[in-house]
Sequence to fold (334 residues):
Amino acid sequence: MIEVSNITKIYPNQRGVKNINFTVAKGELLGLLGPNGAGKTTIMRMVTGYLYPTRGTIKVGGCDLFDDPLGVRKQIGYLPEIPPIYPEMSVLDYLKFAARLKGVKKRELNAETNRVMELTGLEQVRRQLIGSLSKGFRQRVGLAQALLNSPPVLILDEPTVGLDPKQIIEIRNLISNLAHEHTVILSSHILPEVNLICNRVVIIDQGQLVAIDTPDGLARQLREGQKVEITVKGSRPEIEPVLKNVKEIREWSFLETLPDNTCRFLVQSETEGNLQELLFKTFAKADLPLLEMRTVNLSLEEIFLQLTTEEDDPNNPGNKPSVSGPGKEDAANG
Fold:
């Protein structure tokens, strides 16, 4: 549904984005994740046609942004980070105004505004002035205008920013439901949000695409060997020498002492071999009962930090790993 090929945006006095590539399938919910200022908004503005790339191509539903910009825009409902709303208008009047701008026919105006208000839970405030609404409801109004005329693609820039926890859950559930009927690109710097609702994640850092995959796929690619949390019956002085003598273990750390002379450790192997089997045999040979083993996967937060946190040495900026994307060269505004 969306093809972004080698797009670069160069600004005269500030950093831009460089060589961004990704595709979004029909019906997919793609998360665009990155720190503040990474370039997320710049990319979304280019996809919507609000900005044009310096180089590269963007296609939406087969329409090329340069050859058919109106064809691209007709297929997109866009919710910027600051919703394009008029506080002096009522919810109903504003949505009718926006619907006319989007080409909704006069005879369909009432039905279409009622449809988007029902979808976004705005019926109870339809006559209220937008300026009198809470931030959560103003965000719903912005989302409702993006849904007018049923665009196949929704571009949502930080849709839950500034909302309270209850409002975040409501908007998040709404977006998840919309993904059944629309292709969605959602930008955020809130990790749980992306992890909960997105099929795939694109991680942007300083204008570069550093990773693209499912959250689980990113964890598999970044995992260096296996991490296993173990619970062993025995004292710490008894267990640590056993761990030291296993050459396949890269590192281990003591976690805590539990009741009944039991200890927990975190163990990481050198390879992707069967660490659980090795540990079982090792502790059985040492006559120390291995009570529990649990594989530890990287969270999206750990992945995000690995990919976007600079090393302490400013003279060695190339230490950051790259997963299914180009290395880091430039920075971004956005």
About this structure: Residues 224-295 form a domain with the Alpha-Beta Plaits fold (CATH 3.30.70.3100). The mean pLDDT is 84. The first helix runs from residue 40 to 48. Residues 45 and 51 are 5 Å apart (CA to CA).
